[in-house]
Amino acid sequence: MVKLTVARDFTKPTRKPMARNSGKTHRIVPANKSNNRPSQAEKSRLRTEKHSGNSEPQPQRNYTFKEVQPLNFVQGEYFDAIKHNDIIFGIGSAGTGKTFIAASYAASELFHKRVDKVILTRPNIETGRGLGFLPGTLEEKYAPYLLPFDAIFSRALGKGFYDYCLKSKDIDPTPLGFLRGTTFDDCIVLVDEAQNCTREEMKMLLSRIGKNCKMIISGDVDQADIPDSGLSDAIHRLDRILDIEVVRFMDDDIVRSKMCKQIILAYRD
């Protein structure tokens, strides 16, 4: 019997035997992608800002707004008058909270998007001797007159969001003399130190009111730095018009401090 031997060709690659299938299905799992992709709500917000021409995103308001609480009866009356009238005069001594109540109400309305804009203004009249020429832009020149508003809005809205509102003109400080020819629509106008408005300035200011506008005017006729205050004249003329209300603060309503109240009373003599 002849035994045949077959020569193996080592020039051809050998084929490895296939592993036996265990019956399980295997999938290739892709590497985990980054989880920093924006959510659908974030995409929608960015798209809205892009179409509105606002390239700077609005800072997130991740805190709850703390509503102002009146400290006494007359502050409650003032707050109620602001809610239910178009033009409100807050008249009375320093330290009674007139500016605080008005600015806190405006901050709440802006924060909850119930109003488009808040305009801040006051007559640029200094007490006593003036400081002379102030260098800088118009905003920088006018900034010292608005320090009381700065403190209240920064506390109510937070410093970051307040700075954003100033930059986007949602809060717009404007000198009184630059308001002629404008119309106040869909906004709240805060007028501070109104006792230093002349009769002509007060008439110009009040006649700017338009649709869905609320004007809150604060002042103390006893601290007027001009001879004939337009604030006293406006109260006399407008007191009986519907949707205009005058709230008067007394010396007993001073809440700034006990010492402030004693000083105000001492200067009454």
Describe the structure.
The chain is α/β, with parallel strands linked by helices. It has a domain at 83-124 and 134-266: P-loop containing nucleotide triphosphate hydrolases (Rossmann fold, 3-Layer(aba) Sandwich). It is 33% helix and 11% strand. It is built from 9 helices and 6 strands; from the N terminus they run H-H-E-H-E-H-H-H-E-E-H-E-H-E-H. It has a 6-stranded parallel sheet with strand order 3-2-4-5-1-6, sandwiched between helices. Helix 2 (73-84) crosses helix 3 (98-111), helix 3 packs across helix 5 and helix 5 (147-157) packs across helix 6 (159-167). The protein is globular.
Q: Give the class from helix and strand content and strand pairing.
A: alpha/beta
* CATH fold-level name of the domain at 83-124 and 134-266: Rossmann fold
Estimated share of beta-strand residues:
5-15%
Categorize the overall geometry. globular
Helix content: 25-40%
Supply the number of helical segments: 9
**In total, how many beta strands?**
6
Instruction: Give the topology string: H per helix, E per strand.
Output: HHEHEHHHEEHEHEH
Query: Radius of gyration over alpha carbons?
Result: 34 Å
Describe, in short, the structure shown.
This protein has 269 residues and is α/β, with parallel strands linked by helices. Helices cover 33% and strands 11% of the residues.
Task: Give keywords.
6 strands, 269 residues
Q: Layout of helices and strands, plus pairs?
A:
Blueprint: H1 40-51, H2 73-84, E1 87-91, H3 98-111, E2 117-121, H4 138-142, H5 147-157, H6 159-167, E3 171-173, E4 187-191, H7 199-206, E5 213-219, H8 230-238, E6 244-248, H9 258-266
Parallel strand pairs: 1-5, 1-6, 2-3, 2-4, 4-5
Helix pairs in contact: 2-3, 3-5, 5-6, 7-8
